[in-house]
Design brief:
The structure holds two protein chains of two kinds.
Chain A: E1 3-5, E2 8-12, E3 17-20, E4 39-42, E5 47-53, H1 65-72, H2 74-94, E6 102-108, H3 115-128, E7 144-148, H4 150-156, E8 160-164
Chain B: E1 2-10, E2 13-19, E3 24-29, H1 35-51, H2 55-63, E4 82-91, E5 94-103, E6 113-116, H3 118-123, E7 128-131, H4 143-149, H5 156-165, H6 176-189, E8 192-196, E9 199-204, E10 207-210, H7 216-229, E11 238-242, H8 250-266, E12 269-274, H9 277-286, E13 293-300, E14 307-312, H10 322-338
Parallel strand pairs in B: 3-12, 3-13, 7-11, 11-12
Antiparallel strand pairs in B: 1-2, 1-4, 4-5, 5-6, 8-9, 9-10, 13-14
Helix pairs in contact in B: 1-2, 6-7, 6-8, 8-9
């Protein structure tokens, strides 16, 4: 089964436990100002919190240009992505589902961005998540945190690849 | 090992108190926030412990204020006043302190007042080397004697680095740690450094290439090779390096940071200043849990406009991180341009 996120789709191998988390039936607390990551994927020894950002989506630029640019500015991403992670973490904690390390992946699909841009966004997100604090914290809030393009994700998770729908014949 | 420095109305600092890592210390901050001044002050304090010269005079030679008036190092303010710096270092379990107080109305270094553990400080030399931003080895022939005999306007760090690079290699076999470092460097520069009549050469299969014809990045790594080879950088010594990234290809920065981390593992205390994202990121990527590091972020307070310092041992917690902010700004502009 493929999970569709506008022009992107997540195509997990059979048996892989994927939760579409940012939905009223799985989460339902957005009315309480709790944000949610797009997907939670369960592996044997860790969870992946996955957020998909797609500025290259065919229809993405049809809306107000400045609004669009503001959405993808580093500071906006930093604020929204850290809140999504933290709120999802709290939700899962209340479900008693923080029983494995969590890896946070933010996939930004943009042909304009270079490796250094992804590196900068990763640093920025780690800093403000925050992934770790001073010595008072005994563990990291996220065991791993990475902002990356689709290709990096697909290489790391060949059992759960992301595809662009418009390139494989879907509109 | 230096443990701390305290400034009170000294150069760029109104008041500052910085606690150091016994391993690597990375100073970041915009121009004019005093990074180089921290390195120079510590270097002067280390150097006099070996030469037994006057700390006030060494500071004057290293900072080179106009007409060598030491009172120009006192932070400018309203009316007369004094400035001071206080340097702390640890020998075993004992912490030594050396304090220099300078009056703003007295220009001679002879009038500055030295206090603290003066006797013990000079009885326990700490060997150090200061690598300035500008590469000097290519200009070595004759420079040392010229500096010693004529009053030429160069900060003393330039003469000092040449003197230290010209020391002959240590006798006997080198230990594993030194061999590891020299082999990393030899691989990067594809050869070894030789000296003939104060002139530096890179020797490899093609023959001898004089430093003036060698890319500046290779000269820098060659200098490091020389300092390890001749024992200037040994366990217990201190390396100060102002903007090591200058003229270095980003590809070589990985090697440079690898060597700095290895030096730290060998017991060398390292101080560098940087404006470079690659340098900072390489530390983040290459350092392990057992390595010792502190990042010192120097910045001007929005309220007082005075320089303040935040220290952390974690890359993610560097605050403010002006280098990352600059790259973030470039990312934002790329997004604005592309969409």
């Amino acid at each position: 089964m493929a999970y569709i996120e506008k022009d992107l789709e997540l195509f997990p191998a059979p048996g892989l436990n994927v939760i579409k988390f940012d939905e009223s039936y799985t989460h339902g607390l957005t009315g309480y100002d709790m944000k949610a990551v797009d997907y939670i994927i369960e592996y044997s020894d860790f969870y992946v919190f996955l957020e998909l950002k797609d500025p290259d989506a065919p229809n993405a630029r049809s809306r107000n240009k400045q609004e669009f640019i503001n959405e993808f500015k580093a500071d906006t991403l930093k604020t929204s992505l850290s809140k999504k992670y933290r709120d999802s973490f709290i939700y899962r904690w209340a479900q008693d589902k923080v029983d494995k390390p969590i890896h946070y992946y933010v996939i930004v699909s943009s042909t304009s961005l270079k490796n250094v841009d992804y590196g900068v966004l990763t640093d920025k997100l780690k800093k403000f998540l925050p992934q770790q604090h001073n010595k008072a914290w005994k563990r990291k809030l996220a065991a791993k945190c990475l902002v990356a393009p689709i290709e990096v994700w697909n290489k790391e998770f060949p059992d759960c690849i992301i595809r662009r729908r418009s390139l494989i014949g879907h509109d | 090992m230096f443990t701390r420095i305290v400034f009170d109305r000294f150069t760029a600092f109104q008041k500052a108190d910085i606690v150091f890592s016994p391993g690597i210390n990375v100073l970041i901050g915009e121009n004019g926030t005093g990074k180089t001044q921290v390195l120079k002050a510590l270097y002067a304090a280390a150097d006099v412990s070996v030469t037994k010269k006057s700390f006030a005079e060494k500071l004057t030679k290293v900072f080179l204020p106009s007409r060598e008036h030491i009172n120009r190092l006192v932070k400018r303010g309203v009316g007369r006043g004094s400035g001071s710096l206080e340097v702390f270092r640890k020998i075993g379990t004992e912490e030594l302190r050396l304090r220099l107080s300078i009056n703003s109305w007295e220009d001679s270094h002879l009038k500055a007042t030295l206090s603290g553990h003066k006797k013990t400080w000079f009885e326990h030399p700490v060997h150090s080397v200061y690598i300035p931003v500008k590469e000097m080895l290519a200009n070595a022939p004759g420079f040392k004697s010229l500096y010693e005999t004529r009053n030429i306007h160069f900060e003393e760090v330039y003469a000092d680095i040449i003197t230290k690079a010209l020391l002959p290699p240590l006798r006997g076999p080198s230990d594993t740690a030194r061999r590891k470092i020299t082999s990393i460097l030899q691989k990067a520069i594809d050869g070894k450094i030789t000296v003939q009549k104060e002139e530096f050469f890179l020797r490899n299969k093609q023959g001898n290439l004089e430093f003036t014809l060698l890319a500046e990045g290779f000269r820098k790594l060659g200098l490091l090779w020389t300092l390890v080879q001749n024992g200037t950088l040994l366990n217990g010594s201190v390396l100060f390096w102002d903007e090591p990234e200058a003229n270095l290809n980003p590809k070589l920065i990985k090697t440079l940071i690898e060597v700095l981390i290895e030096l730290q593992r060998m017991g060398v205390q390292v101080f560098i200043s940087t404006h470079n994202y690659t340098v900072l990121k390489e530390f983040d990527l290459q350092l392990t849990q057992t390595d010792k590091v502190c990042y010192h972020s120097l910045y001007r307070s929005q309220n007082t406009n005075e320089v303040e310092v935040n220290t952390t041992d974690q890359y993610d917690l560097i605050n403010p991180n002006k280098i990352l902010d600059t790259f973030t700004d470039m990312y934002d502009r790329e997004i604005a341009r592309s969409y």
